[in-house]
Fold this protein.
Amino acid sequence: MMPAARESLLDAAFTALTRRPWSAVRMVDVAASAGVSRQTLYNEFGSKDGLARALVRREADGYLAGVERALAAHAGPHERLTATAEWTASAARENALVRAMLTGCWSERLPAPILSGVPSTSAVPAQRRADGPLPSPGDLLRIVRDRAVTALSAPGAAPADVAELAFSCELVARIALSCAAVPPGTGGMAGLIGGVLRGRQP
């Protein structure tokens, strides 16, 4: 199957999930919405559980791609971390799967695949990856922290400075998650992140 068709199936599954609980999403309807046969859907994902794993993996990848864009799109550390925090908060508010992955709170409406890998017999590379381990909230937090540290570290920085930066980046990620539940007040996200950075300066 062409990657575009796989994406169409995942898009159809995601759209169905916005309209009804995952338990009520039918494979035949997903296939019809994507314009392919049900057999093609099963050939690609193996089962409804396989489709769920692939959907969760895609949404995790999309969230992390947004983190990369935020870290690359601005000049100073404050702006980059603010953009990353704003992206995290908005993604968690607007995408139920991203929110569940970041918080570990899976509602009954959502698929809740086990995070450890499952045996895979798929010949589809993307599905074999989806059948592997899925990120836990702690995994995602560490990935965001580490990518921010990589983007913001000065060449040849002392280990103590890198450790300090890592602590600040982790605080920013945790603040972003809290803002997904309770939006920031006066000063917005930029004010919160500025407070973190000022508070960590010697």
